[in-house]
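Data card: per-record layout.
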Amino acid sequence: MMFVLALRNIFRHRTRSLITLSTILFGCTALIFVGGFFDNVFWQMRTTMIQSQTGHLQVYKKGFLKNGKTDPYAYFIDDLPRVETLVKDIPEVDYVAGRIQFAGLLSTGETTVSFYGQGIDPAREKTIQSKDTLDLKKFYRRPDVGVPVVDQGEGLAVNDKNQVLIGRGLAETMEARPGMNVTLLTDTVDGSTNAMDMNTKGVFYTAVKSYDDIFLRVPLTTAQKLLNTGSVQSLVVFLHHTEDTAKVKEKIDAIILREHLDLEVKRWEDVTDFYHKTVLLFDTFHLIMRIVVSIVVILGVFNTMNMAMMERISEIGTLMAMGMKRKAILMLFMTEGFLLGTIGGVVGITIGSAIVHMIAMVGIMMPPAPGGTIVWLSEPSIVPSVLFSTVILCVFIGVIASFFPAYKASRLVITDALRYR
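The structure for this 421-residue chain is written out next.
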């Protein structure tokens, strides 16, 4: 009976209740949109980093991440074919690619700059031609979003030998273009100096400008020849699904332990500090917005409940004169607040989800992020955890906002309330 009576009281003044529910609906939609927007940003960030730089997992010789910066050539992976086979046999693994990273000088004869180079396997590490990015909405809905894009020329091919793919920022500094001959100068693993004439096959870019400004890519066999080695520093593991990263890491750890391998494996998030800081920053923004929206909704519900209490003072006095206890009066108004929050929350996430879904179907073209190079398509997602927390927040707000008016109603003096007009 308490719920039935509270529900009837809510819709005694339908216009006021609908305005309050509209406020809750607006707040729900805002929270769902922002949560979905940030979730999509995180997805695009991690997909870009995985596809263009880190892979889902990286396997190193133990100690490489700690000491590899000072002595990178002391941490090559031994027995590479065996390790590669063991990892490839894991069902969730899409493919495994060896990499070797080195630093040196890039010269065109007139200009010389320092660079970081990556030796990659062209058969496994993908690139996309820039012509495929003309339809931006179609391109950014591809599953391989984040793969390096070849802006000029062509990507590396399986049989390429002395070919180099130069990052766009580095190419602009060197005024390099496809077909131009350049010279790479670096130290070999035994400490001597080696140089190799290369032909610029193409210019590529990723979503991260700082990466494009200093990196170039060459075929793995060419990098090994340049460094006078047959080994690699890391195995980059790509999975069918990013969600399997933690599970596959456990499997590789078990393989390392079982086979007594002197290796360690790191997830993509373990080597991307920028991603963690960005997530922390956006989570803080989301928290601030939740607080602001909550305050607005609390004020709306409080105003509705306070007006209802003022209009029903004589009615409250009658109920108490008939024997209704103060605790019951308190619970009646608190129940009205609870129902307002619950109805507003359920309707809010339903309509809010529909609105966000329609926005996602259209997509929002966004400018390049700070430090980025390309525009991107935002498609806010429907996040179940955001929906659940939004409903809980609405119910909590309804109860909290109704407490003070309910308390005032329960403390009325019966004789004063009966005389109130």
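Known properties of this structure: The longest strand covers residues 93-107. The chain has a mean pLDDT of 84.

See the next section for split statistics.
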